[in-house]
């Protein structure tokens, strides 16, 4: 799914030592299903076509193996891993399956469907993982595309710089989505099971919101769409009814939502360290990346015809905007959270 | 996958009462993982895009539910079903996932890969199912496409009417494939777990082989290819190196192979009753069906250019052949086998 172009590459690498340490210290093998005759089950929620998922799964399986060897002596058998790759129905599972590492040490399965609902049987999962996926909402909050609602988001395509009601509609929808996600995972995880989340976010809502380039990149697409509506290429109605189903939380907000779910203890929560040196991709590279991520969404609403012009305009605006010329303006962060399923 | 066009429709319907009866009488809930806190896991091996799989899974889940209610009283909880849909990597899992019944009472997962190997963790599966899939070989036996082998199958594309060595190469490959399939499933199934197989076959090898229309249909494609090579449209080399990776066993042979695996007891084995009245599809309908099944295989070897001509020729030969005018000449059968994983 989608992290900032600055962050996408290094996320797994930056999370690696933390995930390894947490599995070694927090994985409670006594409560896990694998301590009976069962395998050790892992799921990645929002895996896309696997490019960033496979390295993460390798880190998790190797750390779990190490933990089992440490606890049970080097003669104990390696757990039989069963890994579930989840994403929405519209995800390209054919590509995912063809991309599976041939030398993998686990049985791979696809688990299609929205991760805000149940996907796996009760108490069947030992380790849940999700990276750069929980910033996606299940859908655009209905009120923001409704002309008769006080939260109607006309002339904009996201909540940055929009009126308070728009922001609240997004914020409430996000909270509901995360609550549904946690409820489903609490049912699926075994007692003592761990969940590692890597959540795209911003450090605070207090600064001028336009200083966060990640949400602003979407806002910039919005301004291109508004320009095209003014030039008669699109109807204003079309632009007014389009909004991006994405939300960037802050650490305090995420913590509050998680604590409302009684099923988990927060074992660790921190902002992931800057994953490596940030280099500045060209406007063209950034536009190409955003097009790859959002084109499906935009085509669904606007049709294919306007895409080339939209992203031409977008590339030009990006190149001309001083905000995007300095990587230090990139304020998006990744929150790392490790949760443990409380013993029922 | 592929049953005879006569049989494909009615197979699930014909098997329904047998599967229901066997689950009610033979399913040993004491040994099953679901009697602990675990879900009841089912896998369909060779499910294609699900068209014939979904009805079968519904029959199986309903029968298991009924069995649980009968054994444990109507107040006992319904098992939490986890269903694994398996087929080769080249299968269209995107279509399969989009076709999943929206009202299904189970968690669905895809399990990609060849079913002659391991796909699921040890002792994790309660019920295995495979319909019209075990007639596909893992690949064409190498010797039949090898000019230097006594089993070289020149001028033909299958074993019907071919020399003894060709037939033996197919037969040995089939035995190895079924042995691998049984070995993998024996590891995956829990003690006491059941496996229902619906295996395309012929009643006996003793009659003139050309009286079996199903293999002969492939032979007829072969004769079209040979004609095209004679007319210079194809090279003879191309035809000599192409063979269909399909084999139709007989009940006695299948029984012998199964008995060699010590992990299963044969609980029931019979020829499935003629599923409904056989109607005679037109030569065109039969050719269209065969084209849908085999085109991918043929394009891989011969390219796309010759497909229209090949199936034009095939339709004409089929229409002109008296063997295909009478549905009573259709001698293909489906063997039903119910196996139980012996208690380890």
UniProtKB/TrEMBL annotation, chains A, B:
InterPro entries: MeTrfase_7, MeTrfase_capping, SAM-dependent_MTases_sf
Pfam families in alphabetical order: Methyltransf_7 (PF03492)
Record has Methyltransferase as a keyword: yes
Domain of life: Eukaryota
Keywords associated with the record: Magnesium, Metal-binding, Methyltransferase, Transferase
Family that this chain belongs to: Belongs to the methyltransferase superfamily. Type-7 methyltransferase family.
Protein name, UniProt field: Probable S-adenosylmethionine-dependent methyltransferase at5g38100
């Amino acid at each position: 799914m989608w992290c900032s172009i600055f962050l996408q590459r290094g996320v797994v690498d930056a999370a690696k030592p933390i995930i390894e340490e947490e599995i070694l210290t927090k994985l409670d093998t006594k409560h896990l299903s694998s301590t009976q005759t069962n395998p050790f089950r892992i799921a990645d929620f929002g895996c896309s076509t696997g490019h960033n998922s496979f390295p993460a799964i390798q880190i998790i399986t190797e750390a779990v193996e190490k933990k089992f060897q440490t606890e049970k002596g080097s003669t104990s058998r390696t757990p039989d891993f069963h890994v579930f790759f989840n994403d929405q129905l519209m995800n390209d599972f054919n590509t995912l399956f063809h991309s599976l590492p041939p030398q993998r040490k686990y049985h791979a399965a696809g688990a299609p469907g929205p991760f805000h609902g149940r996907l796996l049987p009760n108490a069947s999962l030992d380790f849940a993982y999700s990276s750069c996926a929980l910033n996606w909402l299940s859908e655009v909050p209905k009120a923001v595309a409704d002309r008769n609602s006080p939260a109607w988001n006309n002339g904009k395509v996201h909540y940055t710089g929009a009126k308070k009601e728009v922001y609240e509609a997004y914020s409430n929808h996000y909270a509901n989505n995360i609550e549904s996600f946690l409820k489903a995972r609490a049912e699926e995880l075994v007692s003592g099971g761990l969940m590692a989340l890597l959540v795209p976010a911003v450090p605070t809502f207090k600064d001028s919101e336009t200083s966060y380039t990640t949400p602003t990149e979407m806002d910039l697409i919005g301004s291109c769409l508004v320009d095209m509506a003014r030039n008669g290429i699109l109807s204003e109605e079309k632009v007014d009814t389009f909004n991006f189903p994405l939300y960037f939380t802050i650490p305090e907000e995420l913590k509050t939502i998680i604590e409302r779910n009684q099923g988990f203890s927060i074992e660790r929560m921190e902002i992931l360290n800057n994953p490596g040196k940030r280099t500045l991709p060209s406007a063209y590279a950034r536009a190409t990346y955003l097009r790859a991520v959002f084109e499906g969404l935009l085509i669904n609403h606007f049709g294919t015809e306007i895409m080339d012009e939209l992203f031409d305009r977008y590339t030009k605006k990006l190149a001309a905007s001083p905000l995007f010329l300095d990587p230090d303006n990139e304020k998006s962060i990744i929150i790392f959270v490790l949760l443990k399923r409380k013993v029922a």
